[in-house]
Amino acid sequence: MRHATKVASVVAAAALGLAACGSSTGNTTSPGGTGGSTGTAGGGGSLKIGMAYDVGGRGDQSFNDAAAKGLDKAKAELGADVKEASAVNGESESARKDRLQSLIDAGYNNIVAVGFAYAKAVGETAKANPDVKFAIVDDASPDSAGPNVDQITFAEEQGSFLVGAAAALKTKTNHIGFIGGVQTELIKKFEVGYEAGAKAVKPNVKIDVKYLTQPPDFSGFNSVDKGKAAADGMYQGGADVVYHAAGGSGGGVFTAAKAAGKWAIGVDSDQAKTAPADVRDVILTSMIKKVDVGVFDFITAVKDGTFKAGNRIFDLKAGGVDYATTGGHIDDIKSKLDDYKQKIISGQITVPKS
Predict the structure, then answer these.
(1) Long-range contacts of 268-271 (CB under 8 A, 24+ apart)
(2) Model's pTM, two decimal places?
(3) What is the count of structural domains for the chain?
(4) Stronger pLDDT, 215 or 36, i.e. the higher one
């Protein structure tokens, strides 16, 4: 990880503090987060929730928006008072810690950190604030662990297996693709599960794989241009179905699919409902990762006094991952996908993670 200078850290903290003070109305929502840290707040209840988004922020139509859905539900149904802040490309570890601490300093004593990039920041901030309850999405490492930290993770490989099977059942060229935003262990789970599902249907299927960036460059989760270029190359090379696990970069994959007259597969949210209207008809299905469920469960536990630290895994059996049927494009193969789904739940099929 890169290290910010002391001056940069102070500036980042001050900027966040100013942003956090900028809004306190009842119905505000955070902008997309691509231009800098932003903060919004709403409501006046005693249940105070601060949410720190990953790169792309609210409005990415994917991972961050799935988390935002859980926060919005808590605001509507539990009367939560919420404040939001977003990460930026290339930021330092100290900037992430500053963001979490600024939410706490503003009075938000239950914090949700969206994304594994917050692991060290959560671990250190949680230790420094033992009376604050934390949840981190997508990390179960020792870096973020603590007696006041709920580690929310998902069986992404299981959901990816199902959309991989769908891709293999639908391909007419016996050639499909996978685009990952950043090459990390987490995104590797999506790739490996997708490949396993496709090969369970067609052992000889050709699968192209492309990662947009390598750590510590996380811009691969928020670069429409990179996503489009990678997908263009795959479609031109003969692939007719491409699955992305690339956050906001997935918008470029959908644009490329539309231009090529081919299929794309979405991720995290049901993207045939969230993507721009002009590309929804090329989204074959989406691997749904119910981040909203994990976030809402954390907030509910805080409200009910039943919070427990440790790792919670949301898999197919728990309803934490699934595949989408919006558009009706996979209606003809749904029974086959559901058969695979039940075999995974029963343990008849064990999906690899790496």
Answers:
(1) 268/62, 268/63, 268/65, 268/66, 269/61, 269/62, 269/63, 269/65, 269/66, 269/69, 270/324, 270/326, 271/61, 271/62, 271/324
(2) 0.83
(3) 2
(4) 215
